[in-house]
Design goal:
Blueprint lengths: L15 H14 L5 E9 L3 E6 L3 H18 L12 E5 L8 H9 L4 E4 L4 E6 L4 E7 L2
Antiparallel strand pairs: 1-2, 1-4, 2-3, 5-6
Helix pairs in contact: 1-2
Length: about 140
Amino acid sequence: PHLTLIPPFTWPEMRFDVLADCLHGFTRQHPIPTVRLLNFSSFPPRVIFVNVEPDPELQQFQQSLENHLEEQLNIRTDRQYGFHPHVTVAFKDLRESVFPQAWAYFSAQTFAHTFQPPGMALLRHNGQYWEVNREFGV
């Protein structure tokens, strides 16, 4: 499980060390805020997720990271849907035909959990799936 802080972007593999150094510097200066999960929601017709309770600290952390990447490395994110932190429960493994039944189940559930993330990770798409390239603040 993960929270996407910055949407995917293209970055030259030969410059991953520069990106990693930038992220390392950011995590040393910005403590990762506590995350509060609360109940379920969905993006029909295929995505079910756990809500992240709205939190000004998490919003500020994300915005600071976005600003840091733009100022330091000229990385501009295309966040057309805004920052909507969530933990995906079902996506590619949920067929549209089964979504109504799955959503009926999850929408009737209550869930609450608070945790302190152990760190932040840089993910890299290897052509088939996302894998952890580096971890920071762990």
